[in-house]
Design goal:
The chain is mainly α. The chain has one domain (10-66). It has helices at residues 10-36, 42-66.
């Protein structure tokens, strides 16, 4: 799950990016469901939110690796 290895091909990085985005979306849905009814396990909720933030950082890192100079106006 490391994103620091710049020797990986763009195809491998794209696969990881899709996997991270999917997991991030799934965590978002799980967190939203847990928040509808006050969760009994606040620790689990905090861990899910922390994992979601970690994934967001990894997604950003992969996006920068794939497109190091994105258009400013895109």
């Amino acid at each position: 799950m490391e994103t620091k290895d710049t020797s990986e091909s763009p195809e491998v990085l794209l696969v990881r990016l899709v996997e991270f985005r999917t997991e991030h979306r799934d965590l978002d849905e799980a967190i939203n469901r847990m928040m509808l009814a006050p969760p009994e396990d606040q620790l689990l909720l905090r861990r899910l939110k922390k994992r979601k933030l970690l994934l967001k950082d990894r997604i950003s890192a992969l996006e920068r690796m794939l497109d190091p100079e994105p258009d400013e106006y895109a």
